[in-house]
Amino acid sequence: MKVAYLGPEGTVSEESARYFFAGVDCEFIPFRFMADVIRATSDGRADYGVVPIENTIDGSVNAHVDLLVNAADQPIQAEWIYPSVQNLIGYANSDKSDAGLSHIRRVVSIPVATAQCRSFITGMLDPEVEFEPVNSTAEGVRLVKERGDRTIAAIGTRLAAERYGLDLLAENITDHDNNYTRFTLIGKEPLPVRDGAVYKTTILITLPEDYPGALHQVLSAFAWRRINLSRIESRPTKKKLGTYYFYTDIVMSLDNVLLRSALEEISAIGAQVRILGSYPSYGYDGESY
Ligand SMILES: O=C(O)C(=O)C[C@]1(C(=O)O)C=C[C@@H](O)C=C1
Q1: In 3D, which of 82, 74, 86 has the Cα closest to residue 37?
Q2: Which of 28, 53, 110, 141 best tests ligand 1's pocket when mutated (most atoms within 8 Å of CB)?
Q3: Nearest 5°: phi and psi at 160?
Q4: For the Prephenate dehydratase domain, which residue ranges apply (predicted)?
Q5: Strand pairing partners for 186?
Q6: Fewer Cβ within 10 Å of end Cβ, the chain: N or C?
Q7: How much is the mean pLDDT over the chain?
Q8: The whole model's pTM is what?
Q9: Tell me: the pLDDT tens digits for 110-133?
Q10: Which residues contact 188 (CB under 8 A, 6 or more apart)?
Q11: Ligand 1 in contact with 136 (CB < 6 A)?
Q12: Cα–Cα–Cα angle for 212, 218, 219, nearest 5°?
């Protein structure tokens, strides 16, 4: 089984994919951009693609949600939670009289990871430190190694520090200990369902038109059936300013007639519904989903 993830080697996505597929015979294939992960999953170079979509500290990973919605043509087949443990990685200060981080002038990382470590950056690094955005945490670590510059550090995983042979300058630097990322897996085929799964269905709702109470009317179809929504997020349709779709996670399988009737009701009032997947969702080590 081939699993595409955002590379290069050592990203949180790789750690997370190896955790999810532990014990399964898989080939993990890194891609430079998330758009490539999605493309590879469409054109058969990979069976599954790993797409991180939400983080405890920074919220929705909008660029990835938009790709799921606009570029992916395979459904979501699973979801799981994985801790994003970030570290400051680079070359330790060779000046033994200064054990601190004062030699760091530039931080390279994917903005989502930088955003998870704001307190550490403002509290522990030079106020004038510069930021350089890259495509992934491991891409930052790889760049620090390639440049061989002691004044540059990356934010990334312990796995990346090991793979690229760099030092952990500071460990576990995220603003909150409980920093988790929600990963979705897209692909053609469903996977065997494991213990502890909660069924979810993700849909996109576009309102019929903008009138008072339109969203309320849509939501009431779920409310009176006591169907639980665990996430609802508005994103621009990108077609016209001020028009949105609602990315909605429902804690119920699409096989459930209750959910089917709610979707029929929503369609009957003119809203458009697109189903992105109905899949098992797993917490991390028995934690909440
Ligand atoms: O850059 C990585 O290591 C990734 O796997 C991507 C990603 C993301 O874009 O959400 C995944 C989880 C991390 O919290 C930060 C970055």
Answers
A1: 74
A2: 110
A3: -65, -40
A4: 2-188
A5: 49, 76
A6: N
A7: 94
A8: 0.93
A9: 999 999 999 999 999 999 999 999
A10: 47, 74
A11: yes
A12: 105
Whole-number Å distance, alpha carbon 55 to ligand 1 midpoint, is 9
Buried b (16+ CB within 10 A) or exposed e, 177-192: eebbbbbbbbbeeebe
Supply the ipTM of this predicted assembly: 0.97
- What are the tens digits of pLDDT across the range 75-123? 999 999 999 999 999 998 776 555 589 899 999 999 999 999 999 999 9
Ligand 1 pocket residue status of 113, Cβ below 6 Å: yes
Is 181 a known active-site residue? yes
Q: Whose CA is nearest to atom 8 of ligand 1?
A: 52
- Is position 246 annotated as part of the catalytic site? no
